[in-house]
Design a protein that fits this description.
By secondary structure, the protein is α+β, with helices and mostly antiparallel strands. The protein is about 40% helix and about 15% strand. Strands 1-2-6-5 form a 4-stranded antiparallel beta sheet. A two-stranded antiparallel ribbon has the order 3-4. A hairpin with a 5-residue loop joins strand 3 (about 135) and strand 4. The two termini are about 30 Å apart.
Length: about 220
Protein backbone atom coordinates (compact mmCIF):
# COMPACT_ATOMS: atom_id res chain seq x y z
CA UNK A 1 0.00 0.00 0.00
CA UNK A 2 1.44 3.33 -1.05
CA UNK A 3 1.29 6.28 1.34
CA UNK A 4 -0.90 9.19 0.33
CA UNK A 5 0.75 12.45 -0.70
CA UNK A 6 -0.65 14.13 2.42
CA UNK A 7 1.11 11.67 4.72
CA UNK A 8 4.66 12.04 3.41
CA UNK A 9 7.33 14.70 3.61
CA UNK A 10 10.90 15.12 2.32
CA UNK A 11 13.59 13.31 4.30
CA UNK A 12 15.49 15.70 6.56
CA UNK A 13 18.91 16.48 5.11
CA UNK A 14 21.08 14.72 7.70
CA UNK A 15 22.67 12.04 5.52
CA UNK A 16 26.44 12.20 5.11
CA UNK A 17 27.44 11.31 1.57
CA UNK A 18 30.39 9.01 2.17
CA UNK A 19 33.04 11.29 3.66
CA UNK A 20 33.52 11.09 7.42
CA UNK A 21 30.99 8.32 7.88
CA UNK A 22 33.29 5.85 9.61
CA UNK A 23 34.84 8.58 11.75
CA UNK A 24 31.44 9.64 13.01
CA UNK A 25 30.30 6.15 13.90
CA UNK A 26 33.67 5.34 15.51
CA UNK A 27 33.41 8.44 17.69
CA UNK A 28 29.89 7.44 18.67
CA UNK A 29 31.07 3.93 19.52
CA UNK A 30 33.76 5.33 21.82
CA UNK A 31 31.16 7.56 23.44
CA UNK A 32 28.64 4.76 24.02
CA UNK A 33 31.35 2.50 25.46
CA UNK A 34 31.47 4.90 28.41
CA UNK A 35 27.79 4.37 29.27
CA UNK A 36 27.20 2.38 32.44
CA UNK A 37 24.29 1.45 34.65
CA UNK A 38 24.72 3.32 37.94
CA UNK A 39 23.26 2.52 41.36
CA UNK A 40 24.83 5.36 43.36
CA UNK A 41 23.23 8.71 42.56
CA UNK A 42 23.67 12.30 43.64
CA UNK A 43 20.70 14.39 44.73
CA UNK A 44 22.07 17.26 42.62
CA UNK A 45 19.15 18.81 40.74
CA UNK A 46 18.70 18.42 36.99
CA UNK A 47 16.76 21.03 34.96
CA UNK A 48 13.31 19.73 34.06
CA UNK A 49 13.79 21.02 30.50
CA UNK A 50 16.61 18.50 30.05
CA UNK A 51 14.34 15.64 31.11
CA UNK A 52 11.58 16.90 28.81
CA UNK A 53 13.93 16.92 25.82
CA UNK A 54 15.25 13.46 26.70
CA UNK A 55 11.67 12.17 26.54
CA UNK A 56 11.08 14.02 23.27
CA UNK A 57 14.09 12.16 21.86
CA UNK A 58 12.67 8.84 23.06
CA UNK A 59 9.44 9.77 21.31
CA UNK A 60 11.21 9.88 17.95
CA UNK A 61 11.66 6.09 18.06
CA UNK A 62 9.92 4.01 15.39
CA UNK A 63 6.80 2.13 16.42
CA UNK A 64 4.27 -0.24 14.87
CA UNK A 65 1.99 1.81 12.59
CA UNK A 66 3.38 4.91 14.36
CA UNK A 67 1.08 4.22 17.31
CA UNK A 68 3.76 5.39 19.78
CA UNK A 69 2.43 3.04 22.49
CA UNK A 70 4.33 4.48 25.42
CA UNK A 71 3.93 6.82 28.38
CA UNK A 72 6.90 8.23 30.29
CA UNK A 73 5.91 9.13 33.86
CA UNK A 74 8.43 11.52 35.45
CA UNK A 75 8.41 11.49 39.25
CA UNK A 76 10.24 14.02 41.42
CA UNK A 77 7.77 14.22 44.32
CA UNK A 78 9.66 12.98 47.43
CA UNK A 79 6.62 11.38 49.08
CA UNK A 80 5.70 9.47 45.94
CA UNK A 81 9.29 8.35 45.41
CA UNK A 82 9.35 7.07 49.00
CA UNK A 83 6.20 5.02 48.40
CA UNK A 84 7.63 3.63 45.17
CA UNK A 85 10.87 2.68 46.93
CA UNK A 86 9.02 0.91 49.74
CA UNK A 87 6.92 -1.10 47.29
CA UNK A 88 9.90 -1.90 45.05
CA UNK A 89 11.99 -3.08 47.99
CA UNK A 90 9.16 -5.28 49.24
CA UNK A 91 9.01 -7.06 45.88
CA UNK A 92 12.79 -7.23 45.57
CA UNK A 93 13.16 -8.74 49.05
CA UNK A 94 10.88 -11.59 48.00
CA UNK A 95 12.83 -11.99 44.74
CA UNK A 96 16.22 -12.18 46.48
CA UNK A 97 14.84 -14.59 49.05
CA UNK A 98 12.99 -17.12 46.94
CA UNK A 99 12.00 -16.03 43.44
CA UNK A 100 15.54 -15.97 42.05
CA UNK A 101 17.34 -19.26 41.52
CA UNK A 102 20.91 -19.98 42.61
CA UNK A 103 22.36 -19.34 39.17
CA UNK A 104 20.65 -15.95 38.91
CA UNK A 105 21.89 -14.88 42.34
CA UNK A 106 25.41 -16.04 41.49
CA UNK A 107 25.36 -14.04 38.25
CA UNK A 108 24.42 -10.94 40.27
CA UNK A 109 27.23 -11.32 42.80
CA UNK A 110 29.82 -9.25 40.85
CA UNK A 111 27.42 -6.30 40.92
CA UNK A 112 26.81 -6.40 44.66
CA UNK A 113 23.07 -5.87 44.30
CA UNK A 114 20.43 -6.59 46.92
CA UNK A 115 16.83 -5.65 47.69
CA UNK A 116 17.74 -2.16 48.99
CA UNK A 117 16.98 0.49 46.35
CA UNK A 118 18.07 3.75 47.95
CA UNK A 119 18.64 5.35 44.56
CA UNK A 120 14.88 5.67 44.00
CA UNK A 121 14.72 8.37 46.66
CA UNK A 122 18.16 9.93 46.14
CA UNK A 123 18.08 10.70 42.40
CA UNK A 124 16.20 13.85 41.32
CA UNK A 125 13.93 12.00 38.89
CA UNK A 126 12.68 8.54 38.20
CA UNK A 127 11.08 7.80 34.86
CA UNK A 128 8.57 4.99 34.89
CA UNK A 129 7.92 3.72 31.37
CA UNK A 130 4.50 2.27 30.62
CA UNK A 131 3.55 0.33 27.52
CA UNK A 132 0.09 0.93 26.11
CA UNK A 133 -1.49 -2.39 25.21
CA UNK A 134 -4.14 -0.50 23.27
CA UNK A 135 -5.42 3.06 22.91
CA UNK A 136 -8.75 4.41 24.08
CA UNK A 137 -10.22 7.36 22.21
CA UNK A 138 -12.33 10.15 23.67
CA UNK A 139 -15.47 8.09 23.07
CA UNK A 140 -14.11 5.15 25.06
CA UNK A 141 -13.50 3.02 21.96
CA UNK A 142 -10.48 0.70 22.05
CA UNK A 143 -7.96 0.76 19.18
CA UNK A 144 -5.22 -1.79 18.58
CA UNK A 145 -1.55 -1.05 19.03
CA UNK A 146 1.01 -3.17 17.19
CA UNK A 147 4.39 -4.60 18.20
CA UNK A 148 4.03 -2.87 21.55
CA UNK A 149 6.92 -4.54 23.40
CA UNK A 150 9.28 -4.07 20.46
CA UNK A 151 8.27 -0.43 20.02
CA UNK A 152 8.63 0.46 23.69
CA UNK A 153 11.95 -1.37 23.88
CA UNK A 154 13.32 0.70 21.00
CA UNK A 155 12.05 3.91 22.62
CA UNK A 156 13.79 3.00 25.87
CA UNK A 157 17.03 2.52 23.91
CA UNK A 158 16.64 6.03 22.52
CA UNK A 159 15.90 7.28 26.05
CA UNK A 160 19.03 5.73 27.56
CA UNK A 161 21.20 7.09 24.76
CA UNK A 162 19.73 10.59 25.26
CA UNK A 163 20.34 10.40 29.02
CA UNK A 164 24.00 9.56 28.33
CA UNK A 165 24.24 12.36 25.75
CA UNK A 166 23.02 14.80 28.41
CA UNK A 167 25.88 13.81 30.70
CA UNK A 168 23.58 12.03 33.13
CA UNK A 169 23.43 8.42 34.32
CA UNK A 170 20.63 5.91 34.65
CA UNK A 171 19.68 2.39 35.63
CA UNK A 172 17.13 0.02 34.10
CA UNK A 173 15.35 -1.25 37.18
CA UNK A 174 12.75 -3.99 36.92
CA UNK A 175 11.17 -4.82 40.28
CA UNK A 176 8.93 -7.77 39.53
CA UNK A 177 6.00 -7.82 39.59
CA UNK A 178 5.50 -4.10 38.92
CA UNK A 179 1.76 -3.80 39.39
CA UNK A 180 2.31 -1.45 42.32
CA UNK A 181 3.52 1.21 39.86
CA UNK A 182 0.22 1.08 38.02
CA UNK A 183 -1.63 1.62 41.29
CA UNK A 184 0.61 4.27 42.85
CA UNK A 185 0.70 6.36 39.68
CA UNK A 186 -3.01 5.81 38.99
CA UNK A 187 -2.45 4.91 35.35
CA UNK A 188 -5.36 3.97 33.04
CA UNK A 189 -6.35 0.37 32.38
CA UNK A 190 -4.63 0.22 28.99
CA UNK A 191 -1.16 0.88 30.42
CA UNK A 192 1.26 -1.66 31.87
CA UNK A 193 4.53 -0.86 33.71
CA UNK A 194 7.61 -1.67 31.63
CA UNK A 195 10.67 -0.17 33.37
CA UNK A 196 11.64 2.06 36.27
CA UNK A 197 14.60 4.29 35.37
CA UNK A 198 16.31 6.56 37.92
CA UNK A 199 17.99 9.53 36.24
CA UNK A 200 20.50 12.04 37.57
CA UNK A 201 24.15 12.71 38.23
CA UNK A 202 26.34 9.97 39.72
CA UNK A 203 27.40 10.23 43.35
CA UNK A 204 30.94 11.58 43.76
CA UNK A 205 32.11 8.17 44.98
CA UNK A 206 30.07 6.11 42.52
CA UNK A 207 31.73 2.96 41.25
CA UNK A 208 30.73 0.75 38.32
CA UNK A 209 31.87 -2.73 37.23
CA UNK A 210 34.71 -2.92 34.72
CA UNK A 211 32.55 -4.73 32.19
CA UNK A 212 33.82 -6.75 29.27
CA UNK A 213 31.70 -6.39 26.16
CA UNK A 214 31.30 -9.40 23.92
CA UNK A 215 33.45 -9.10 20.79
CA UNK A 216 31.85 -8.49 17.43
CA UNK A 217 32.22 -12.08 16.28
CA UNK A 218 30.13 -13.29 19.26
CA UNK A 219 27.21 -10.95 18.69
CA UNK A 220 26.97 -10.85 14.91
CA UNK A 221 26.88 -12.91 11.75
CA UNK A 222 27.69 -11.42 8.34
CA UNK A 223 26.38 -12.91 5.09
CA UNK A 224 28.38 -11.65 2.10
Amino acid sequence: MKASEESVMPLANHVVNGGGMNERVSEYLDFMKTRRSVREFSSRPVPLEVIENIIRIAGTAPSGANKQPWTFCVISNPELKKKIRESAEAEEFISYNGRMGEEWLKDLEPFGTNHVKEFIEVCPYIIVVFRKAYDIDQNGVKHNNYYVNESVGIAVGFLLSAIHQAGLVSLTHTPSPMNFLHELLERPENERPYLLIPVGFPADDARVPNLLRKPLDEVSAFYH
